[in-house]
Amino acid sequence: MEEGLVVCRANHVPLTPLSFLERAAFVYPKRIALIHGNISYSWQELHGRCLNLASALSQLGVSPGHIVAAVVPNVPALYELHFSVPMAGAVLSALNTQLDASTLAQILQQLEAKVIFVYSDFIELVLQALIILQEKDEPYLVVLIHDSTNNVKEPPASSATPKILDYQTLLEMGQPNFKIVYPKNEFDPISINFTSGSTGKPKGVVYSHRAAYLNAIADIFRYEMWKSPVFLWTVDMFRCNGWCLPWTVAALGGSNICLREINGKEILESIYLHNVTHFCGAPMILTKIADAIGTNQPLLPHEVSVTVAGVLPPPEILTKLEELGFNINNAYGMSEALGPVISMPRKFQDNSDEEANVKIREGIHNIMMEEVDVKDPESMKSVPADGKTTGEIMFRGNAMMLGYLKDPSRTEEAFEGGWYRTKDLGIKYPDGYIKLKDRAIDIIKSGGKIISTLEIEGVLIRHPMVLEAAVVARPDDVLGETPCAFVKLKQGCFATDEEIIKFCEDWLQDYMVPQAVIFGDLPLNSSGKIQKFILRDKAKELKCLPL
Amino acid sequence: MEEGLVVCRANHVPLTPLSFLERAAFVYPKRIALIHGNISYSWQELHGRCLNLASALSQLGVSPGHIVAAVVPNVPALYELHFSVPMAGAVLSALNTQLDASTLAQILQQLEAKVIFVYSDFIELVLQALIILQEKDEPYLVVLIHDSTNNVKEPPASSATPKILDYQTLLEMGQPNFKIVYPKNEFDPISINFTSGSTGKPKGVVYSHRAAYLNAIADIFRYEMWKSPVFLWTVDMFRCNGWCLPWTVAALGGSNICLREINGKEILESIYLHNVTHFCGAPMILTKIADAIGTNQPLLPHEVSVTVAGVLPPPEILTKLEELGFNINNAYGMSEALGPVISMPRKFQDNSDEEANVKIREGIHNIMMEEVDVKDPESMKSVPADGKTTGEIMFRGNAMMLGYLKDPSRTEEAFEGGWYRTKDLGIKYPDGYIKLKDRAIDIIKSGGKIISTLEIEGVLIRHPMVLEAAVVARPDDVLGETPCAFVKLKQGCFATDEEIIKFCEDWLQDYMVPQAVIFGDLPLNSSGKIQKFILRDKAKELKCLPL
């Protein structure tokens, strides 16, 4: 540093999303921060609750660097934990509520969390997990959250194992004048999010205060979530910390709307009732909403922006939603990059016939993700921007994890060469935009050829009878693998496998045409993502299926 | 850092506003970036020009850490220098075009800049300064910028001293495939802005890439400058780097409108012509616009946001502008904090009779300025939030200078105790909002009492005949100092000193009433700020003025 220049406490404050809540409580004290059923908190009230909770956590011995786990759906308490846990200097790990007890036990062991916040619906699951863990030292402290908009569900009487405290009791223990434990370094961890674990042991992805702060700001650009948004919580807060949106909404002094149940009817009703401006999630929410649209459904009071990550449902569903006033955006990202990295209005994706089967042609990259590229994973050279050459999609930027918890070798592998390696395959167009060809794990290798399952799905979904489609590899003695299609038909529709295969033949090159079609419901995870690993198992079993 | 967590090239990219231009060129290649007269560049074109210029600077030997000076008004070249100089790894120092040759010489000596960009109107000034400098070693390189919207003005033939190169020639020297020299550390300097120097030697205030980046983002919140703004350049880019707005507009992919001349007529015409959404500057621009409003002036096509830093003109001028569609905001800040720190819509300032003389009651603090407080400068304790107790306004946050160039003792003094000390006096209200009482240097000490000149000016400006007013201390043998008012009357208006004093007596306590009133034009600096140091000198001379 040159003469006269310094970096000190006056001109360097570690970046942390905690600043956003402080500011919201100061600048917008009376504005509605959060609504859930009949409950409504202003920013001042919410700030007070978070301070109380942080104070109570400190009293319980939660200290800087400790991990606090949560098995909680999108209720206000989980929103509050996004601030109060880091306010106590601790690290929040919000866990998927759909985990089975043994996976949950495995994760809890990895976390070494001593405090677990549990929503009443999941108390039995957590107690089962704790029994599996059979931890002997200090007992776990479980904080039980009752949904105040529903009937109270008491924990089972048999739950003698851990110490159980009530969320409300904890809140009342706290002191409102608690002094926030700000991070000493902006690279200190703020949260841990687990990947789905469908490809092995769940990985704990660690976010820093800095990354969370910058990605929360990037969300403003990404979702065009400008002044005072009214945000509807359809994306799980336990997924990438709800794409960092709990922090974004606080930065903007917007309002959060939590739902009792995430179904099409509730979503639609909330939009009209609360003047919702934005919501996000898995593509399935679009289908749910479309199903709930009535015959004389009134137009939305204003354009409502919805961003979904994953393969879009059939065009007629999208059109139905757009006609009502929804602005549909499609995003691509991953836990490691704090959620969506690049996104695009769906209208921009579909603007030429040539690209009729383009599913995700993303491009408006995150303002905090400095570089997005498609590279040869060996040479690390960019692929030619020719719209043909396949490479691995890679990123580098500040909206990026610190690494995998207690897994240095996987962290090193992920960041090898100074770029985050997505393992996803893509191509690059002359204008610099990239197209996701497929997730590396989903790729089908057939007779020496590489087949993108996304491309086949893009054709299937255009068949007039098809509602949802997924393609996976089926082992084949001759070709190695062949495409196997799983298809869910629209209600009241019928189709045969020959018809579906014929349709594919009209649109795809021969080697890409599915060799088998299986009809039925597709297995979805809690965020509506199709669980391809289940389908792959099924396809293996069906190896002998007659063509 | 815990096991498995790393900070590396993949997840840590030094924050720099250069990223904004890269992204704008990628995401909005064809969108208009900048308009000046008949010239118009898209983001792609502007990006290309900046790359060329950075490349040419490198060829000239400009290297990381070097300082490049500019004596240039708000023409496209100065916008380009905000990107191209740091792209070459160098530090931009945009200097006030209103400086006299000897002050300019003093600053150039301090900077040790070897390249100076000069607008043709100021070439004689710069050559004079260089003669004063009489530098002997390497000659300066002067890059001459001609206003392409005007007639070319050649440099005087006598200018043999420095090497002179043409801006256009330099651009053509550059290579468009230049590899940007990104900062190694986000705390590396990006620019140096000089304070007015009215209180002594001009101070070079150094900004880091990080502070510039974060403050450019904060500008989005501060000016509610959301999606695709059309920004009119009325604030000087050589003042706090135009409040960091060159970088903000790039971050948003907005459009910049440069004016040939900053007068009311040009401003109004540009607003209608280009659909301007935002502009900023000194309060005098409001008066200039009000004067230019015609009798049948059409309403603005949409609300236009204007933010001014300093004392607002009389209410009828504000009302006239608001009726046309302007949304007027008032801000308070300083060079050290990269421009405005806190700002507020003027409507919020004036909402009670009690506070009729409140001039700046600011509060919506910068999202990047973590703490804003009024403290006792000795004990560093916050003053009671009672709306009465005076203390020093202090800040700490990321939108803050690195320090004063080559002046460690002043830097240390400014950041003493871990806060930036503004030297401005303020009070704090129970709701946490602060009110600026006065700049410390302007305070009048009269008979053991402290008088705020802002409060007296707040009364004077409400007199129906008064257009502008400034109050300074006049030496007094008995009381030490007494208030002395300088008043500019509205056109066609007449008033006597007795009338003005009588009016003040109706509104102010006795000891605050000006003891002398002087009529005439007030001396303004180039940004429209009243030059109180000139008035103080005049007041001293007038010590014997009869009361």
TrEMBL record, chains A, B:
Annotated InterPro entries: AMP-bd_C, AMP-bd_C_sf, AMP-binding_CS, AMP-dep_synth/lig_dom, ANL_N_sf
Domain of life, per lineage: Eukaryota
Xref: Gene3D superfamilies: 3.30.300.30, N-terminal domain of ligase-like
Family annotation (CDD domains): ttLC_FACS_AEE21_like
PROSITE patterns from the UniProt entry: AMP_BINDING
Keyword match ATP-binding: no
Alphabetical UniProt keywords: Ligase, Phenylpropanoid metabolism
AMP-binding enzyme C-terminal domain ranges (all copies): 455-529
Domain AMP-dependent synthetase/ligase: 21-405
A family per Pfam: AMP-binding_C
Similarity field: Belongs to the ATP-dependent AMP-binding enzyme family.
Name used for this protein in its record: 4-coumarate--CoA ligase
Organism this protein belongs to: Datura stramonium (Jimsonweed)
